[in-house]
Write the structure tokens for this entry.
Amino acid sequence: MSGVIVMKKKLNVGIIGYGFMGRTHSNAYRRVVNFFDVPYEPVLQVICGLEADKAKAFADQWGYKSHTTDWHKVIDDKTIDVVDICVPNNFHAEIAIAAAKAGKAIVCEKPLALNGAQGKEMVDAIEKAGVANLVSFNYRRVPAVTLAKQLIDQGRLGKIFHYRANFLQDWTISAKVPQGGMATWRLDVKAAGSGVTGDLLAHCIDTAMWHNGPITTVCAMTETFIKERMNVDTGKVEPVGIDDACTFLCRFDNGSLGNFESSRYARGHKALYTFEINGEHASIGWDLHDLHRLNYFDHRDESIVRGWRSIHVTDSDMPYMGKWWVPGLQIGYEHTFVHQTADFLENLAKGKPTSPTFREALATQYVCDAVLASAKNQKWETVKKAQSQK
């Protein structure tokens, strides 16, 4: 009937963690209904954080109906439909397992867990409960990265020979940067599980296996350049247990070779994430610093015009872009979380899984485990398979 406003079903969200990722996820829940025709309207019901005053300030800024410092209250709240986990890695398992037992849909920041064994416990709990689940490897949903996936699946590259990726930063070079605490927990092995491997390379690995299939074997080296740092939590100078840099070679199940590098000691790089894929017929390259462009080379082009081209991924027939502005106007980092949320809500209504699921993230966790084991044992390691129960 003309003029009738159809009200979307409300979906009450509780986010645990008000840091960087808490902001990106909150923004996504608020914006998704403005740009995507999703079947649910997310309601920011409760934000949970360690400090009451900061939780209240966050709730006021983002429009949450309530705030708490006890994550158990979020789980126990019968009105909460989705529990979104945006806290340090060492809290993921306990919260996710409790949320699964309570029958909540779950969104969890990456990496899945501290290690594969813990991740397997989470997957078992999730699958036993049968709840919707998603791990936030957001770079999959950069339109150019999604377009790369489509071109690969269409067979445009032909047989894949090489996949190489790096993720470089420079923010921990100073020995004065501490470990632990709310700002630098990623440097504390007890909170993070690992360093660049679980934080940065996990993104590269997830995207690589999405594009190119399973990684089967790895050979790695890691380095911790600064051996001791002040621990914010204890007030003492303590050994550093995380990897500051990691480089590894790998073999994919399809026979192609991989080369991955990550470091927080690459002076001049704040967040340089790139990948290049070389196939029989064509190659693809992408750079986070120019995230709306996909570089493409096709050997089948006529020789006089053959060369690398830069595809501006802004047209409405390109992934996600039809929901945003007009061709030529690009979008940014925060939009990847909006895309992720739109896909999750759409699939939730259909009863379909949204990738990457906890089990898919477990496969990435197993690669990270093998990488760290290889660096420690100084030999090639076989990656454990995250086989489905089905």
Summary: The mean pLDDT is 96. The first strand starts at residue 9 and ends at 16.
